[in-house]
Fold these 2 entries.
Entry 1:
Amino acid sequence: MSSSEIRTAGLNKIFHAIIKGEQAVTPKTAPRFLESIYTQNDRPACLHRLISAPNGLSLLQRSMWCDLSPTFCNGHAAKLLDYLSSPDILALGAGSMLRDILKAMVEPPIFWDNLVKLLREGKLNEEGQLGFAWLLCRVIHLFPSEESGPFRDLSRDDAIIKPLLASSNPNTRNLAQKIQHRAAIHDTGATLDDQAGPGGRHDNDFVDFRTISIIPTADEIRSKEPAFIRPSNMFEDEGTRENRPGLYLDNQFRLLREDMLHEIREELRPDVKRKQSRNLQLTGLTLIDVHYKPEDDTKKRRGVRWGVVLHCARDFWQFQKEKLFKPLKRKKWLQENRSFLKHQSVACLKVDGELVALTTIERDEDLLARSPPDIVLHIEGAASIIRSLIKLKAASSITLVQINTAIFAYQPILKAIQEMRDIPLEQEILFWSNQSQQQPRIAIPTRIVNSIRQTPSQNLQTLLQLSKAVNLDDSQSASLLEGLTKTVSLIQGPPGTGKSFIGALLAKALQHFADQKILVVCYTNHALDQFLEDLMDIGIPEKFMVRLGGKSTDRTKRLALQHRHIREGKLTRDDWSQIRLLETKIRELDQSLRITADRYQNTNITDSEIMDFLEFDTPSEEFFEAFSVPTSSADGMTTVGRDGKGFNRFYLLRRWRDGRNAGSFTKHSVAVDAAHIWEMSPPARNAKFVEWKEAILREKASSVQQITQEYDRAQRELDSIFESKDRQILGSVRIIGCTTTAAAMYRDRINEASPDVLLVEEAGEIMECHILTALSRSVKQLILIGDHKQLRPKVQNYELTMEKGEGYDLNCSLFERLVLKNYPHTTLLQQHRMRPEISALVRLLTYPDLKDAPGTQGRDDVRGLRSNVVFIQHSEREDDNAELERDIDKEASQNGSSKRNQHEVSMVLKILRYLGQQGYHSDEIVILTPYLGQLRALQRALSKDNDPVLNDLDCHDLVRAGLMDPEAAKIAKKPIRIATIDNYQGEESEIVIVSLTRSNPERKIGFMSQEQRVNVLLSRARLGLIMIGNSETFLQAKAPNNVWPKLIEHLKLKGYICSGLPVRCERHPTRTADLKTPDDFDQKCPDGGCTADWYWCSFIMQDASLSIEVSPNLRPHEDEMPAPVPRPVPSRPPSAMGVSFWSTKCMSQL
């Protein structure tokens, strides 16, 4: 047996001997008895045996009394308390077993009073403080109210709570927060629920969600306790009716913020190398300024927030690599590479290896261009500011790690929710039931409404002053009437039914027949620009519209707010008067902040400051008295030293700090009365001294923080006045267009413009909280246009999704939630996109009532194929993680959610080339895949000949996942479009090629089992749909509500499932082949034709100035053209796709 095994056996022997009464508890056996308890692996079984013993609890009690020394309390007692803190023990008997054990420890309070005394005297080390904090927290929670009173009183004792809050151990600090919270909850008379209630988990968890800092604190990130969030069905409970609006806002905030925190925590997990490996990390930083002020004079007037400035020890390696040594060149590089240290990106501030705060970067290019550079950080929240200043002041090493979570996408929404006090249209949003009545619009445009009701299918060209004839079908007319007559209207638009067209008609009708302002919101800039272009196309003049936000297309940039500033925005005389007053105030605050910041930065805490602090700090008064050098003895004689001179004022303080006794005053009452202070060990004295220094620094840092708060508030007021130009413009237009994020960012200005109608496009893929924050106080009508049967909103934390089934439902849109509550909605029934063979697929799975418009009938077949719908079956397995580790997508394999299938990549490339050989242009084809790993593999393969066009969202996702360099994302791209399925919703293409990717013996298909994603996948193509995958994997997938068996059965029945791409020669239709492998394309259909008549099927025309290959399908048959002659060069030849179609065999023949 090993020595550890021998010791374990010995401890077990002692444990059983004592609980059986064979051995007594003595000062000698007590420590080993406690050790025999806290070293047991099976905690519940151990404690059960202890409690079941006749005198088990009294044995434990006597063991805790045998030794009351600091060594025992910081050692065996602390380890036992840590052992008892396991959640497994709390769960036993709903906490009753733990309560009995703790009662034995603290009643009578022999051990407890001694523990409190040791904490007051500063004799508990880190482990002892943690044990004390846990014991106090659990006693307050588990004991009845009448018994826990004395313990709650300790939570209001600064001598007890301050050392715990100042502990270097985050777990101790979190417990101290919880102790204060539970005592405060009790004082209000509220019910105390340890797990469910908000507040107290860490230093940024409060009952009032409006006091929570949006940027998380370091302690919050480290906290292991689950956040407080309510399940969605709570809002169906009649018991919440009275307080439902407030609870609803609270929960929307907490849900969205938890989604943000999940992504941050994932990046900071020590075991996740995937993201950390690409996070920019700067080491060797030093604090050079506690008050940032920009060098650029144009920035001094507005937009400047308080921040700290850190100096880099060395230059950025990017500057060294590019050999950028002059400031102007460095600054130019920074301007061209804005993703480097991106403005407002989040960075972790680490001091001496400890995470201190999450900060945001102020991208001051003048400071970054210095050699070495300086970096400006903004810190949010009083607690984080004070803690960061204290840590930075005494730092030995400072590190900054940039993280890639897009906090800027969350922050405006979260801030807007915190500012909300009322919920417009709350009866429909929060209180709708089957007994409710749908409310009519306040001001119904009767002329157009009556006209449509009388003649639903009439031509609206004259009525709405449109540029062309518009005749609606019955479902379109019903949807238009719904939007014109109801307070809250839901219009469902299946794929291809023209949701955006109905939205544009509604906007046109309201603009023409109702004197109301419309706020149009979309989730993405792309969707917003498309919709604004639809509004322009339908005849709404540009002067009636404005677009908020920085991005725009060539057409919509004329609507941009910044563009209109040039022509319309002016400040009044009163505005300039207020600006001058505020600038004076800011200068005064700036000067005050500069003085306070410099004083703090140059602080060197003296003995005099220590004594002054001890004198006026109530918990430390006894230390002040102990260190106060007596000027005379008891008999009135003046006290002098050996040299006959009086003692230095700090004589006792310095001797105590140095670990010595009271020297000449050892027998004096000043030392005798404070014996417990002079008996403190050197480590305890040092810890106490550090505590006092930090307390003094905290007071000074608090002074800095208070001025920064005033300074930032004045800057915001100044910004608000400059924004009055925005308010003038927004007040003068009829239609305001923006993304949901911009709606939150411009919330104050939009509120002042007082929109009457909120029109939401693609409402089914927008989170409810995004629509909530777009609801201005003035909104009297809400129009939601979307489809809850397509993709739901994107959520980062799977635990919060409807699919997970925990009831939080963050990815349930307001549109879907209202439909599920049976709120009335209209549905567009006629699709204009898909040919009938394709629409039959979505009709089978999702929309049984969907009809095909006449324009979808009789379209040409896809050239070169025997079927317009194809599922290419293969059994080649997806690449496993080992392959990905060795290959280019190493990061993708570590992601776990990213997959790749190299066989499908090769097949897609050949299929794309083949379609080009049939005369299809690259803007008529799109390649879709579910996974970022496959997307990147496809992009790499295609980039060898042609750089694919990536959706902006896909570029962002690839960069964030570490699969694409940020700079590569900016390179101009040629037009071959590849996208993930999720990021292609709302778009369409003539031909869609889908790489399904998944192929494995375990039959795992992940999120591809979701009906909404399959629906989007099947409904993007107008002319032809080509899927490639392993049908067996999808058919036998063990997933709930798997729609693939039904789909695959239909594909088999129709003959769409093939072992290869089913091709035929357009010049020789009887010549067919199934192309099962990439090599088959060159062997069986060279250059896109066939082998029957090689001369004409591989003929290349030449021109004196240009040689191109002409697709076989664009040439006449041999018997129609006796001799080859030059033909006109097509305006967009197949080679525009960038794929080489030249045949060396053909060239040699010619």
Entry 2:
Amino acid sequence: MAGVLGNCLKNLIRLAQELKQSIDKIPQNRRNAHKLSENLITDLIDIETFYRARSHVIEATPELEEALTGLLKQTQAVQTRCEQFLITTEQRGWRKMGAAMKAWRECDQVERELGELKDSVHQCYRKFTMIAISRLEQPINQISLTTTTPDGTALQLNESQNVMLGHMESFLTTLQTPGSTAGTPIFIQPPKEVVDALYLHQQVEAISNSLAELSATQTFAREEPNEQYLQPFKTVISNGRLKSSEDVHRDVVAKTLEIIKLLKGDSADLSIQDGAWEMVNLAIRLYDLEMYSDAEAMGRWTVTMFRALVATNQDIYEPYLALALRNLSRYKGQINDDEGSTAAVAESLEIQRCLVQKNPTLEVRSQLSNTLNEYWSIITQKGDNEKGLEIAQESVAITDSIRAEIAVWNEWLETPPSGPPPPYIEPAYVQVDDVKHSDDPAQPHPASLDENETIWLDYNTARALCCLAYSYQDNGRINEAYETQLKSLALYQNLHRIHGGNFEENVASSCAHLCSQGLREGRDNAKSIDYAERALEIYRRQVDYHPVKVSPWLTESLWDYADLLHNEGRKDDVIRVTQEALEIVRKSNQNRKLLADALHTSSGKLRRLEQKETAVVLRMEAVDIYRTLAIRDPPSSESALPPADVVPRHTVPDSLMDLANDFLLIDKEADAVVHCQEAVDIFRTNLRKAPDDSSAHLDLARGLSYLCYCMFRIKEYDVAVKLGNESITIYRQQFRALGKEFKAIESYVSALRRATLSSFYAISLHAISVNAAVIEDLQMLIVDHKDKVGKTLFHAFYDRDFLLGKHGRVRESLRVHEQVIGLFTSFPITDPGIAADYISAHDSYAGNLQDLGRPVDAVRACEKAIDLGNRFEDDEVTKELACALAGARATYSGLLYNLGRYIEAEEVMKCSVKASRENMTPAEDTLLACRLRTYANVRRRLDCIDEALKLNEEAVMICRNSTSKGVFVEARLPYNLDSHAASMLELEDHQKALTTIQEAMELYRKLRDGDYNPMVPWHYCEPIYAEALNIFANCLMATGDLNGAYRALTEAETLYRDIVADRPGLFADQVVCLDLLVINTRALGFHAEAKRISDDLAERLRAMEMFNSEVALLAYTALDELRSRPSQVRLRASFGNQ
């Protein structure tokens, strides 16, 4: 019955095509019928495609044959009806018209029949898929394969091998379907590569079983070393053309059959020294075929056999045992047996160090270098970068010493001897005749290195240099890493040029490292592109031979290449390369977990390439896969091989947090909150299941910290503070419980930073206590982690200053600044970044001192900050330092202005504005506007009114056009408008001045009367609002509105009572207000009230002289400045109060 279904499907497709042609010829044809006929053909072609791919499973199925026969009859019936329509429409005259009307009436019936036919096709397709799946879904121990294997025998799979089959290329689907018939063997023909791998696996298992049986029933013979082992220990490095997987497979099969034949010998005692070395090579070939579990199985037996041989003759066999242990370590690493991998390589190192002490031959020392390189891989994967650097340096030192000794010998051999020969590096197993200039035949000499030894030395040197390059990079020594990798590349290129073969993979890896993001920063982009293209050329050629191994390298190189093209602005090429990378990701990761991992990584790469929307799509796909894998039942402890797609408990929530981050990058904060909240819920569930697991506690703390940040982004500041507090509480508990075992310092500090940032904007007073807890934790951490904590602690203190000031607790704020400045005594101020923070701390400290009535101390604080900044040379000044210094100079200029030192204030402010223009970012534009305002005030006091007006106009324009967000931004426009109005007053443009100040007052009142705005705390706005009321009153009096001016001044005077009680340094502003109120009340004819206010002003000044002479001096200076303004002189003259 073979091929019956295929022929039936061909007939169905042909009939469906004829049906479509008939429908196309009907004039009354409607678009719906046409569409249905097209879809019908498409669906039938899909069934045929499905059949061709799975004919070995579903052929000879009566149920399917019956379904297709019924479908064929139904299609013929619809096609016959359409042909009848075609006949009737060929009639002429009235008959043609009648036929057309009949066709129109019956067209609905045709469409219904087409729809029913399409449904039948879908049902047939479903039967095909269900039967195919059910036949693959039999219990594993019921599946058997009938196929011819390379030795001509039938391949039968036992249960464990069927499990393996299920993992190879996802051969068995995991979908459960009804209708499976248990107990019946199903005969299927899997792909050739699967059969080859399974066959080879059977042979490896046969070897293992034979060895296990023999070792249990027989003893290994105590044998004398044969000729191979009597030669000096030497390994051979393979080189030559790159073999296909089929060629390698054929070689490996031949080797396994040889070993099996050896194991089936009739000897009572098994001789193993011949087979042991063959099995070493067999394990290497299995590793090359990416059959890592089988390689590990053979590796274990090689170690067992060489241990037995070492017991008989340690000196001969110990180097081989060390080699077998090193190889076993590599195999165990590939199957994620980290503990076994570490133990094996550590034992190998111990043996080889002893061998070097006994007999430091070139081969033994070279082998030690090779093992150190393997050990380096394990240690660096565990994150111990410092130890990794030590190991890499030791390995390089060994190869360098060998090369240096060879160079000395070569020099001695090429020149007449003038003394004794250098110390030998190789025991005398060469003929004396091979050595020139030798007068002592008993003296051991080194032989010239043969080709294999030269290859090994160059290869080990290159590999050691490559490890050292990565270690330099991991320890932040980037330039050394780059130069070291160049040396490694030069050696690999020379090996590849002379010997070809396997070395091109090493050339590619070196090129890939040189163009990687970690090494290419600050280097020629074109050179990096050249390295990337060379790596890609090799990887693209190799991926067909070793897809599992090479695909990740190729993908990573493609991402680096896309990054480099992005730097060049080659957008079309970037899209092409990223598409190639994604195709490889999907093609090479048939296992769902590996696919999800690859999509997860690819999303991060696309995000860096600014393809953020695509990154989100990939991340969502990865998250969906992780979710489906996570809801499965955990694997049985009795299963032979645990599922390859089991995900750790933290994978789903971690991927959700990454997805939340992706959403934040495209400004979809609400989506970010939803996914981050889901991650936190999973972390909480995990913690309930494992309450004693510290990692579960830390996972929850990390999730809460990021959810805190997400809430911060949607401006739910109080919720963010609560989450941040919960997060740092967990971190604190774990830090104290784990002590030195606590490894999450960076995450802890990040959580502290997010918590204090949220408290910065929160409404609740609880934010102050949370900030206090943050500072306490940071002070606890700074003892041992100064480099990671210092800047965060500074920001936390700064946030506390803001919080206390926001809630009117200015004196506490001053103590905070004193703590901050004390903090910097333990830091080297020679660093520009730390110096910038130190200057900013003194700047804020000066502002607090000024508010509390200590102007002289404030001036000293500013001078100290400016002096520190001036110590740096021009080429040492960073933008951060320049901005901090500009801020300190702006504050210093304001203090000098208040003290009446206007010329000095003008010089300092000029420098501040210049530095601000050159170094500030667009996000800081409104801060520049405020400095322009201060500069305008100084220029106006020096009678440069026109220049002051231009500065005011520029400042107002900056604020109006600004799109920046941050603290005080909304208050800076009215703040600059009131200064602009003051400049207009001096130019006697009273009406424009009044219009400008009215706009400022309206903006101030919106801030005051509207809902609470955490970006602009009103406590900070009150003083500048009161100052604006003074300017408003001046404008009103200049335009004759004395009553309006009285109301403004009365409001200002009421505000100043509370302001000055809290911040006595603002007493001078209160004095100005009272002096204006005296003038106003006199002009209104309220002479008694004017005298009362005047007497009150005089009494306040006298009291201030007694209480704080510095503040009194500021008040007198402010009065002199006010009364000497041209606008005030004119105003007072008009009222008769000059």
